[in-house]
Design brief:
Length: 109
């Protein structure tokens, strides 16, 4: 019985690890900063697909954002600053963010 429990635990652990790793491989995101290098905390980052579907996440304390699903090739990322100031509109192909380490610097108008 102990052997069965031990083997069951190992199988559950292995499956959990595979699921975790697959989630990490398919997640994508980046970082949003101001021109002085400070993070844009609370920026709204939206993923917009060709059919008009939109998913929005908020940048964390480090200016980082991440989406759980990989976008289609024609999806776009739109970024809006939280401070109400007027910045140049940012709309980029989502494919730029697949590595998870793309940095965007908001530029004032």
């Amino acid at each position: 019985m102990r052997r069965f429990i031990k083997n069951s635990f190992i199988y559950v652990l292995a499956i959990s690890l595979v699921l975790l790793m697959s989630g990490l491989c398919f997640a994508f995101g980046g970082k949003v900063t101001y021109t002085d290098g400070s993070p844009v905390v609370g920026a709204k980052v939206s993923l917009v697909d060709k059919d008009g579907g939109k998913k929005t996440v908020i940048c964390d304390a480090k200016g980082m954002f991440q989406f759980a699903q990989h976008p289609s090739d024609d999806a776009e990322i739109q970024i809006k600053a939280p401070d109400g100031k007027d910045y140049l509109k940012v709309t980029l192909p989502a494919s730029l963010f697949t590595g998870g380490n793309t940095a965007i610097v908001l530029q004032p108008k």
